[in-house]
Amino acid sequence: MCIRDRDLIDEFATFYAAGTDTTSHTLMETIYLLSLHPEIDKKVREEIDKHIPTLDDITFENLKKLAYFDCVQNEIIRYCGPGGFLFWRESLTDQMFGNVAVEKGLYIGANSIPSHFNPTYYKNPQEFRPERWEKECDNLPPYAFCGFSAGPRSCIGKGLSILESKVILVIFLKRYKSFKLSASELKWTFGSSYEPQRFDTELVK
Fold it and tell me: CA–CA separation, 130 vs 136, rounded Å?
């Protein structure tokens, strides 16, 4: 099979954009929300100190022990994940979705944000509460949580994104004891993804 240069460039651009912007935005969102919820920040740091005493202890096996950290990551993605409206698909044929006619060539975008704030699936959805992922969300319908899309065309880099953001955050939280924001409310924009506007942070070692 011959792969054209244009195809290689497109694939690289996709991996680069999907693997850098989204992860950096997620890290920014995590810092912001942890600063607003010191009790959650404290619990995350205590778990990290228990299983990863030093930076030399960052291993794949130790990272898997951070159960509460996983809950925080899931809640970040539910609450303000960067890929809430990126899942566009082109209709290859004329077809019907219920009573809606979809013509061939029409692009359809699936927005995951409404389902992530649907009280049918999440109790008090406007509340940032990582504990909901300990048991409460065990039996969610397949598409109630789709920060990385879902189905056979879901994000191929999901595992890498979760792992690299976890490693970066562990290093960050080990190096800095606290951080203070320049603003108490973060504004969100729709750019290359669903992303927060820039804010200044004071880091305390």
Answer: 10
DSSP strands (E only) in 57-181:
87-90, 95-97, 100-102, 107-110, 178-181
Q: What is the pTM of this model?
A: 0.80
Span 138-168, pLDDT tens digits: 889 888 898 887 777 777 778 888 898 999 9
In the predicted model, is pLDDT for residue 87 greater than 70? no
In terms of residues, how long is the chain? 205
CB of 130 closer than 8 Å to CB of 122: no
SS3 54: coil
CA distances for 93 relative to 6, 18, 89, 107, 191, angstroms: 26, 28, 12, 11, 30
Q: Which amino acid is at 155?
A: C
To which residue do tokens 């990385």 refer?
A: 148
Give dist(CA 156, CA 15) in Å, integer: 10
Contact between 187 and 196 (Cβ < 8 Å): yes
Contact by Cβ (8 Å): 129, 136? no
